[in-house]
Amino acid sequence: MTDSPLRARAEIDLTAYGANIRALRGIAPRAQFMAVVKADAYGHGMVPCARAARAAGAEWLGTATPQEALQLRAAGDRGRILCWLWTPGGPWRDAVEADLDITVSGLWALRELLPAARAAGRTARVQLKADTGLGRNGCLAADWPELVAAARAAEAEGVIEVTGVWSHFACADEPAHPSVPGQLAAFRDALAVAERAGLRPEVRHMANSPATLTLPDAHFDLVRPGIASYGLSPSPEVGVPADFGLRPVMAFKAALAQVKEAPAGLGISYGHHYVTPGRTTLALVPVGYADGVPRHASGTGPVLVAGKWRTVAGRVAMDQFVVDLGGDTAAVGDEAVLFGAGDHGEPTAEDWARAASTIGYEIVTRIGPRVPRVYVGAAGDAIPMDDTGVDEDAGTGTGAGTDTDPHRPGSHHG
Ligand SMILES: *Cc1c(COP(=O)(O)O)cnc(C)c1O
Fold first, then answer.
1. CATH classification at residue 256
2. pLDDT tens-digit profile, the chain (414 residues)
3. Which range of residues forms the domain containing residue 125?
4. 165 and 212 both lie in a single domain
5. Are strands 8-13 and 308-313 parallel, antiparallel or unpaired?
6. Rounded CA gap, 70 and 93, in Å?
7. Which of the listed residues 2, 340, 357, 395 has the most CB atoms within 10 Å of its CB?
8. How many A from CA of 224 to the centre of ligand 1?
9. pTM (2 decimals)?
10. What CATH number is associated with residue 67?
11. Residue of 36, 244, 362 with the most ligand 1 atoms within 8 Å of its CB, for mutation
């Protein structure tokens, strides 16, 4: 289903991604680093990003689903991987055999996991998740002592090892929000309960991107940034990426599929919500909502064509939209830049988020599977995943690699 990069492509700058991770590690220097690569690395491509994250020193990778984590194992990653979104049926045994760190948010999960670990004949690595005020996944304070006691009993039996206790913020992207100190206090209480029960977790953690950037008290033993590693700010309140030395990793580009002279009064695209105000030149951009261009940005989305910002004229359709070049001209095949790092006059994913009343997270994550990801950046920066990862015994990653992996990110700059 992936198309030709000549039509449209998402360029992924792995050098910027690695540099962002190094910058974030500098902001949380005493914490271990988990690169969150769920949802195909927020649309950037999970396996190439995971490799680059390991090369930049990420001790951990984080995914939502166990399937994502197992895909990383299948791609050769041997380091620590935490996944957190479980549903009945697991796959618990596969996860235990793959040495994943398994998040348990309630007794039901422990009840499914324990028999699977016994059947696998090995100790499962478990991280307990407390709901300290997000009100989503995780174990609430009232149920926490029972979950902790059950986990401790299973640990004493040798079936599991509790490697972590963690939680997640609701409003860290609004740094002054009163829930932030409340969640920190609730997390400390949850840790105290776990310690009194005899648990000695290797890592305690709750910092997503905004907390990593703005709340050193929330760094604990490990930070888990996602969006910031892709060079986007979690929210305007937190700042702009450059404030933290971060650079957007993804650029979304397309080649003009048609350029034509048009008369005044021509209705453009479905519904005719734009009508040419005079004689003009129209350019057709061959990407649409199937590719992740938000239909909600009809009439508002910005795109750099022929040296200037233009605005989507009329509706974004499934596969294409139109821009009105006014008095300017362009050639078929010329590049249209929907978004990029923003330092060559192009809009950013955050500009698209504003245009579509959403967040940058959604703009990059929803770039569709039809759009090829083209990896750019220093080829030597990324290394084959088989040779990376955290060695269980040594506890540190190694960086040696060979050059034979055909999927190794290289310089396919086009
Ligand atoms: C997605 C996610 C993160 C990363 O969040 P960002 O806001 O992108 O930094 C961290 N932890 C958990 C549990 C998540 O689901």
1. 2.40.37.10
2. 678 888 999 999 999 999 999 999 999 999 999 999 999 999 999 999 999 999 999 999 999 999 999 999 999 999 999 999 999 999 999 999 999 999 999 999 999 999 999 999 999 999 999 999 999 999 999 999 999 999 999 999 999 999 999 999 999 999 899 999 999 999 999 999 999 999 999 999 999 999 999 999 999 999 999 999 999 999 999 999 999 999 999 999 999 999 999 999 999 999 999 999 999 999 999 999 999 999 999 999 999 999 999 999 999 999 999 999 998 999 999 999 999 999 999 999 999 999 999 999 999 999 999 999 999 986 444 444 444 443 333 333 333 333 333 333 333 332
3. 14-230
4. yes
5. unpaired
6. 11
7. 340
8. 6
9. 0.91
10. 3.20.20.10
11. 36
Residue 89 vs residues 63, 99, 115, 116, 235: alpha-carbon distances, Å: 18, 18, 12, 10, 36
Is residue 168 lining ligand 1, measured as CB closer than 6 Å? Answer: yes
Q: Which of 327, 262, 318, 269 is nearest to 295 (CA)?
A: 318
- Which of 38, 230, 253, 274 is catalytic? The answer is 38
Phi, psi of 225 (to 5 degrees): -80, 140
Query: Is 159 a domain residue?
Result: yes
